[in-house]
Design brief:
about 270 residues; five-stranded mixed sheet; about 15% strand; 2 domains; globular; Rossmann fold; alpha/beta; 11 helices
Length: about 270
């Protein structure tokens, strides 16, 4: 079998002991009916909320307790190119087969869901999930009333200030949400200063709830510099988590559009 990096890995049987090192993928496994097979998760695997009480927490997404994972005797370990480090994966490969996801857009999400369907023999559940996400996407497209997408600057970090640019899943979801990313000409997550000219182009400034926990005081700080801008804290999970959480993303995007209609000058 191959993962999303086109790496080959071997499975002798359907995995029954899963270690998931990516929060959104952990939630996806539960949605696919595989909760009983999950033996290890990260401290950031917060959905569903009870999971960290019933499964072994093996560390975070960047740092793990290798011995805890060895003791779990996993049949497979699920990773992500962006979330987990090369050094981690090199160590984990000595323990069990590794599947690495690589997500940049909605089609990558669907490919991953299909892969999990095949690996864990839950093809029907995987197919139904993809179909339901597509339906949510299509329904949202019919609900968008703005003719010209509003321009957005999407902050993910402070000290230093960092934004989501292109070549990442957040940028794809900004487009999915019916907005335009003003930093699309750059790549990944550039550091910026607040006098960056692109910020002047933005109709909206979004402050993500994760990975940096932006709060109301950060809105006030930016509002003092950009009094004419609409600045909002947005649900970072619904812009950056793939898998089953996408079912909640599109209704949320509709709410965002309703709340920002007054910015639209059309």
């Amino acid at each position: 079998m191959k993962d999303q990096l086109n790496r080959e890995f071997q499975l002798e049987k359907t995995p029954k002991r899963i270690v998931s090192l990516v929060p959104s993928q952990t939630e996806l496994l539960v949605h696919l009916g595989l909760e009983a097979s999950i033996v290890g998760v990260t401290k950031f695997c917060v959905h569903p909320k009870h999971l960290r009480l019933s499964k072994k927490v093996v560390g975070g997404t960047k740092q793990i307790n290798l011995q805890k994972i060895i003791d779990l005797n996993p049949d497979i370990i699920l990773c992500n190119k962006e979330e987990n480090t090369k050094e981690m994966i090199a160590e984990l490969e000595t323990i069990a087969p590794i599947h690495i996801s690589d997500i940049y857009n909605l089609e990558d999400c669907f490919e991953l869901i299909k892969m999990y369907g095949n690996i864990f023999h839950v093809e029907k559940r995987a197919s139904e999930l993809i179909s339901n996400i597509r339906k949510e996407h299509e329904a949202f497209q019919l609900q968008i009333t703005t003719k010209t997408p509003l321009k957005v600057a999407y902050f993910i970090w402070k000290n230093p200030w960092m934004v989501a640019a292109s070549t990442n899943f957040i940028d794809a979801m900004i487009t999915e949400a019916g907005f335009t990313n003003v930093f699309k000409a750059q790549e990944r997550y550039p550091e910026i200063v607040l006098n960056n000219s692109k910020l002047k182009e933005a109709d909206l400034i979004f402050l993500s709830s994760e990975p940096f926990p932006f709060k109301s005081e950060h809105i006030a700080e930016l509002q003092s510099k950009f009094p004419e801008k609409t600045i909002k804290i947005v649900d970072g999970e619904l812009f950056s988590w793939y898998g089953s959480r996408l079912l909640k993303s599109y209704p949320y995007f509709k709410t965002l559009h309703d709340e920002t209609q007054k910015v639209d000058t059309i």
